[in-house]
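Lab channel / #folding
Pinned by the channel admin:
"Please post every new chain as: sequence first, then the structure tokens as a reply. Keep commentary short and put observations after the output so the thread stays searchable."

First post following the new format, from NK:
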Amino acid sequence: MAVDYRQMWKELDMDLENHDNLCNVLPVAYTDIYLMQKNRPKAMEFWDTVVGAIHGIRPAELIEAQKKGQKVFGTFCVYVPDEIIIALNGIVTGLCGGSQFWVPDGEKVLPKSMCPLVKASVGARLSRTCPFFRIADMYVGETTCDGKKKAYEILGKDVPMYIMDVPQMKRPEDIVKWAKEISLFANKVEEVTGNKLTIEKLNEAIKIVNDKRRAIKRVYEARKNLDVPISGKDALLMMQIAFFDDPIRCAEMCNKLADELEERIKNGVSVFEKGAKRILITGTPMAIPNWKLHHIVESLGAAVVCEEMCTGTRYFENEVKENCASLEEAYLELAKRYMKNNCACFTPNDGRIDDIKRLAREYKADGVIDVNLKFCTIYDTEGYFVEKELKAAGIKCLGIETDYDDGDSEQLKTRIEAFIEML
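Reply from TO:
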């Protein structure tokens, strides 16, 4: 039985008429991209349900938690340590930013020559059409992107904003600096929640997040098999929802999906034709509902088997040491883990290229597509090194630039089809 969330949205002071326009578009797109797939894992029904009420089910849970005294922290990036928030009885949620629908509102206050992810995030807040932006008690940003840094100044005008200063290099002293940033963030979350951080609570939270990472990793491990038991689109959807979901439930549902995928592998079940070319996608993150590239690739008969990006391996690889003896030790272990994420904001960033080559081998990729969201200069610049190094390693690579608009879909389809045929 469908639940009517309109009263909740009204109480959040959302623009209901504009929000209706968004809600009318999403189900059609989701049906065409997801529900028309053949032989999907049965466990994907959970994510279908979540997307079917993406602005209802989880927001309602967050509001109920707030009524019981919990605080909700909206985050933009994988560098924000969820463990700190969870340890202090706070709740972490991702924030909207993956649709062309929000870009025009973002462009009212931001330059058109800015990344669509940033414009969409700001537009989602200003247009009052994303409940997660309406619910969050505090936004937590980080200094991985110049565009986001200036956008935070706009978003912070009417909602408390905390910004973590991410070092731009990975020297030993930078790891120490990031550990200090994490300790300062812990102090702020203590202030907001009214709770006191203890090593016991932090160790519990570290295990909760590690369990989630391990569950997601199981799904990715299944994608390494020659019989690919899940589409890249479904795996991407699982990753996108992981940013919003309760971490314990997320681990449970991902493990359930992994169980099914492992059984499929035993039975030789694949969702792709035998001999389908295997594609690894790397580059800028793909926030929900940005499914364009995966849909094009897989509509052409190829299989997306891995994503080296924030909505991919960077989110779950590298666990945090468990059972730390003190908060100081835990802060340092958290810093070590999070600084292993190879974002293009770092210089140098050779680790990302090493990761791409390693993952291409592990996932038996026939080729790599390096995707850059238009106007993201750091990933665009790094694309030169990615293509050069992959070519030297004998790995075929296609570099593309795109945004959220579907206007370039046919052009992309032509280029990607030629790339797949060349493979």
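NK: The chain has a mean pLDDT of 97.
TO: also worth noting, Strands lie at 72-75, 91-94, 138-142, 161-164, 278-283, 303-308, 367-373, 396-402.
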